[in-house]
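tokens incoming
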């Protein structure tokens, strides 16, 4: 550990491994809203966030739990699977367009950027809802993964019914 007057202080969140300030600064320089996707141990959370001097302002939030409570996603199904992430992103896209925000930049934080993963499944949901987010088509998952064909046959019916419920809500 360095000592003396030339010591550089390290931000608390950087020291804890929670924030990459270089990536955050690049996202903020664009002056666009951020489409934030975070995946926890139990569910996915998607938000539209704007920067403000006194702190970030969350414009819209949709979680995997909201799918179950508001849109008819079955209780026994995962709230962080690829289909659940797609539907959460789809609901966030519809909610943000209803609020007047039709353009954003994807913010995945410190999550790994694996092509076809859950983060990009949420991105595909936002794009399918009509939100304009710059991306490459090669990172998006295939339709069979979004419909849950790799998990179970019951999930594809649940995806369709939940998607209809989201469209009716917004």
């Amino acid at each position: 550990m360095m000592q003396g007057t030339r010591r550089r202080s390290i931000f608390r969140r950087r020291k804890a491994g929670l924030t990459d300030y270089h990536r955050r600064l690049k996202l903020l320089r664009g002056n666009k809203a951020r489409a934030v996707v975070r995946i926890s141990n139990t569910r996915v959370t998607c938000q539209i966030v704007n920067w403000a001097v006194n702190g970030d302002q969350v414009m819209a939030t949709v979680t995997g739990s909201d799918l179950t409570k508001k849109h008819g996603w079955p209780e026994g199904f995962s709230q962080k699977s690829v289909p659940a992430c797609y539907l959460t992103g789809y609901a966030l896209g519809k909610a943000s367009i209803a609020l007047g925000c039709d353009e954003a930049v994807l913010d995945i934080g410190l999550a790994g950027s694996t092509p076809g993963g859950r983060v990009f499944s949420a991105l595909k949901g936002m794009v399918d809802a009509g939100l304009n987010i710059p991306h490459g088509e090669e990172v998006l998952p295939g339709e069979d993964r979004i419909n849950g064909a790799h998990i179970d046959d019951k999930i594809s019916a649940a995806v369709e019914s939940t998607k209809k419920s989201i469209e009716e809500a917004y």
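note: Helices lie at 12-15, 21-29, 64-70, 82-98, 118-129, 143-146, 153-169.
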